[in-house]
Amino acid sequence: MDRRVIWAVALMMLIALAPTFFLKKPVERGAGGLADTTAVAPAPATAPAGGQRADSAGAPVVGAAPSDSAGAVPTRARPAETITVRAPLYTYIISTQGGRLLSATLNDYRSMVPGDSAPAQIVKPESQLLAFRLVAAGDTIPVDRWVLTPSTRSVTVGDAPASLTLTGAEGAVSVELTYTFMPDYRIGVSGQVTGLGPDGGLALVDLGRGLRNTEIDSSQNFGAYAIVVKDADGANRTDFRSIDAGETSLLSGPFEWAAIKSKYFVASVFAFDSAGGPGGRISGVRASAAPVEPQFEDDVHVVATMPVPASGRVSYAAYIGPLEYDRLKSIGHGFDDVNPYGWPGFRTIVRFFAVPVRWLLVQMHENLNLAYGMVLVLFGILVRVVLWPLNQKAMRANMKMQEMQPQLKAAQERYKDNPQQLQVEMFRLYKEYGVNPMSGCWPMLLPMPVLFALFFVFQNAIELRGQSFLWLPDLAQKDPYYIIPLVMGASMYVLSKVGQAGMEPNPQMKAMLYIMPVMMTVLFINFASGLNLYYAVSNIASIPQQWLLANERKKRAARAIVEVKTKKPEKGGGRR
């Protein structure tokens, strides 16, 4: 029984954690519903024959004015300006060229890149995040190359939102975009487009080419790069690394929101159906990987497409900031699923434990004013204290199971040819000793949900990013000296050794005494140091209980021997 339980636990952990290393979500390629113009990267315009301007795909530009001798149109002749938006939580820099976001500095988070401890700036220099283009009657209107006129040169956001309006026109088409900056990383965008014609058109909102690396482990950060979209059925994720170099993936909507994410940060756009429909108003997303061999995992150009009605009204929103669970949850529309706990099929179970565990860790940190390392130490002890009564009951049931083993073996020998009678005798023994055959599994299985929950919390929770403790520079990263995994393995060995004290020698249990700590150390050695810290503390906190129960087991065994020796033989030489 003990060996089966140990192997079952080990296999469950391997099954749950293996997707971290091996699974890749397949990408749906060639989904319909999007025109090829939805993700054409802006490029310098060329002048085809006849003097009409064309975009980078060769399509004529609607309403373009004739070129002058230098080949520039009036709105592109002026130099672009930048508008700085300052808020307590962030500093955004907007370009008047197409209204793109050039920089997003998050004041509460610092860069973890070696040699760079400045506040984290998550927008790539070459990104065109929030750049705006239009498609009408099959023609592209490159608003992202227009130099627009701003209503102000700087914006300060306090407790209330603040706005910036950008206006521009070329030929028959004019655009007015108003950005409303909220205090909490959200940007509302509303606008009016005139000159599209009676059929309206499409708005192409650029989500950039991935986010700038801000982490010490760039490969781990790039591994988390993904496109996440939300439709009526829920959120769906497409990893950047699953899109082959030079290829394009089309994701067909409608979507309520679309986002690109790194491990800890996200850039997203929201467009909800004004009629209250469940699908949203983002009609599709196109992702084009750079034609590079080998492919850079972070170089995927993503564009979201939204319909523009004949009235020319444009309305959507953006969130450019950290993956803080509470903040994502408060936005609604399932936006917390942009950074889910666990994988499909596991998320419901994992989230049931992970969300309360994350909340408790944050509350302990904020209300007790403790470093997260100390929070994990206290949390590991707290879990064991809470589980103490259940463990006590389960371990005592295990003792009774061991006491009945001689009679159980005798019954198995006696009824080896009669399985039905053997089952009756086994149930009689369980009832006589008052034990449940599965009760001995509890001490092994009860802490597992918390351990799994913490695994995903350390993968996802930005609150633990960059939190140091003792020699550990970052609880969300592996121990650079591998001390904590070794302590965890040693504590597991000591716990098992103490737990086996007073038991009848068993070669299988003796082998597992050495195999399990080694296997778990190898499995956990590159996991977050905070996870190893919790597990080591949890093991150490369990040793006193195991020691007390081992002493109780020895006393019970000694009493049983005394009772056997002092019991007089029955008359007639009966059994003692």
Question: Strands, helices and their partners?
Answer:
Blueprint: H1 2-17, H2 19-22, H3 74-77, E1 82-86, E2 90-95, E3 101-110, E4 119-121, E5 132-136, E6 139-141, E7 149-150, E8 154-156, E9 162-170, E10 173-181, E11 186-194, E12 201-206, H4 218-223, E13 226-231, E14 234-239, E15 248-255, E16 257-261, E17 265-270, E18 282-289, E19 300-308, E20 313-322, H5 325-331, H6 347-368, H7 372-403, H8 405-414, H9 419-433, H10 442-445, H11 448-460, H12 483-499, H13 507-524, H14 529-566
Parallel strand pairs: 1-8
Antiparallel strand pairs: 1-2, 2-3, 3-4, 5-6, 5-12, 7-9, 9-10, 10-11, 11-20, 12-19, 13-14, 13-16, 15-18, 16-17, 17-20, 18-19
Helix pairs in contact: 1-13, 6-7, 6-11, 7-14, 8-9, 11-14, 12-13, 12-14
* Total beta-strand segments: 20
Question: Which range best describes the helical content: under 10%, 10-25%, 25-40%, 40-55%, 55-70% or over 70%?
Answer: 25-40%
Mean pLDDT: 79
Question: What CATH architecture label of the largest domain applies?
Answer: Distorted Sandwich
- Counted by DSSP, the helix tally is 14
Beginning-to-end CA distance, first to last residue: 30 Å
CATH first level of the largest domain: Mainly Beta
Largest sheet: 9 strands, antiparallel
Indicate the CATH topology of the largest domain.
Beta-galactosidase, Chain A, domain 5
Low-confidence stretches: 20-74, 572-576
Strand order of the largest sheet: 7-9-10-11-20-17-16-13-14
How many domains?
2
Gyration radius over CA: 32 Å
Structural class: alpha+beta
Shape: elongated
> Beta-strand percentage?
15-25%
